[in-house]
């Protein structure tokens, strides 16, 4: 059984354990578009929000958007409480978390000022032992450093076997770069994503895992 095979589990947050209602996402991109004087289509908003095309900064540059201008505008328009209230826990993620009885951590690109309210709103802070929000100092997935930092916080032993589950290719890359198995949960479909993401396990829902 997959769950019993690991001594610890790490998860990405957005798109993996939780998601935000589309109305919230759309409103954020509307306001960001006004700030930088560049409107976003629904498809463009989806691509950036969910990371459908891979790393976001190269995509922004391909659209002639300076990431150094976009991200401050994006974070300025995110409201932590509204984000938390608009965020829901995926049912399959809830079920999987309920059967894991080894240490659990989260490694997310979502910034701490947004992550903590979401965790509290959904009581996820009571179900995980550590949360690492990536920064320039910690490194960004697929860099293994944030994963390794989370493992250190969990006091993971050298011979422990672990896994990282996420919805993006950067999650699987970070898992493999850190010597972990990678589970890719594809919540959008490869046609909508525009590419196929590899993984040791590839599922549309965590319900597909044998446990």
Automatic annotation (TrEMBL):
Select a single GO molecular function from the record's annotations and give it: phosphoglycolate phosphatase activity
In terms of InterPro entries, this protein maps to: HAD-like_hydrolase_sf, HAD-like_sf, HAD-SF_hydro_IA, HAD_2, HAD_sf, PGP-like_dom2
The record's listing under Pfam families reads: HAD_2
GO BP terms, alphabetized: DNA repair
Q: Which keywords does the record carry?
A: Hydrolase
Q: Which family does it belong to?
A: Belongs to the HAD-like hydrolase superfamily.
| Name listed for the protein in its UniProt record | HAD family hydrolase
Q: What organism does the UniProt record list as the source?
A: Natronocalculus amylovorans
């Amino acid at each position: 059984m997959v769950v019993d095979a690991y001594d610890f589990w790490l998860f990405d947050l957005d798109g993996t354990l939780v998601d935000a209602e589309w109305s919230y996402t759309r409103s954020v991109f509307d306001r960001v578009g006004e700030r930088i004087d560049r409107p976003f289509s629904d498809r463009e908003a989806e691509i950036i929000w969910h990371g459908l095309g891979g790393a976001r900064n190269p995509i922004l540059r391909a659209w002639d958007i300076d990431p150094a201008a976009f991200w401050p505008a994006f974070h300025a328009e995110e409201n932590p409480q509204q984000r938390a209230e608009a965020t829901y826990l995926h049912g399959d993620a809830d079920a999987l978390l309920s059967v894991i009885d080894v240490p659990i951590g989260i490694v997310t690109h979502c910034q701490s000022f947004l992550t903590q309210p979401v965790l509290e709103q959904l009581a996820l802070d009571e179900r995980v032992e550590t949360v690492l929000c990536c920064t320039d100092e910690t490194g960004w997935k697929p860099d293994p450093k944030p994963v390794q930092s989370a493992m250190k916080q969990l006091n993971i032993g050298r011979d422990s076997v672990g896994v990282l589950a996420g919805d993006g290719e950067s999650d699987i890359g970070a898992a493999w770069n850190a010597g972990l198995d990678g589970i890719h949960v594809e919540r959008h479909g490869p046609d909508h994503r525009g590419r196929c993401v590899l993984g040791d396990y590839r599922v549309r829902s965590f319900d597909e895992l044998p446990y």
